[in-house]
Amino acid sequence: MASVDLVGLTVLALLSEKERHPYEMQTLIRQRRKDYAAGSPRSLYRAVERLERAGMIEKAETARAGNRPERTAYRITPEGFESLQDRLGELVSVPLPEHPAFTAAVGLLARLPAEVAGAALRTRTVLLEGQIAEMEAQRTGLERHLHRLLLLELEYLLELRRAELAWVRRLADDIATGALAWDADAVRVDPDLLIRSRKEGPAMS
């Protein structure tokens, strides 16, 4: 079965609700704040074409309203519904390796002077606080109109931001108080030791 990317997965999910045409799907993606899939309309149309070629969706009807261009509605096929179920189950159950830029930067943080690293972390806390406040306001507004099931993505992202804020604050405090000794030489570990530690994994208590 062909692999389905996140835009394609969103198309399958929307079509599992009812038949829709691409313009309606694009509107719903924006309304439901599926930011990962809210790129250019061309991306969505390409996803629709790929899914149709793969036999996961099919044309349901083509209609014209007044002087507007014709719009083709699509429906999900049994193969598409099976792919949706399988891919969603996989993404939810299996933690995949992700490498955000911040994770990479934290791993290289010792290359900065302690005061510069601490100041950067303090700046990040201020920005995170602003993002969290904005996300909380969004959720409060959306909760009046949408079921919680449609807000789980925002809820999850909000929890991630809160956890990140708490950790960044602790790290900045540890640098400021000296609880984290800032020794750039400490990261110059024997490569063989690093290789062995990765093979052995964390010590079990």
TrEMBL record:
Name of the protein in question: PadR family transcriptional regulator
Any Pfam family hit: PadR
Domain of life from the UniProt record: Bacteria
InterPro entries: Tscrpt_reg_PadR_N, WH-like_DNA-bd_sf, WH_DNA-bd_sf
Domain Transcription regulator PadR N-terminal: 11-85
Organism annotation: Nonomuraea phyllanthi
Gene3D superfamilies named in the record: Winged helix-like DNA-binding domain superfamily/Winged helix DNA-binding domain
Coiled coil: none
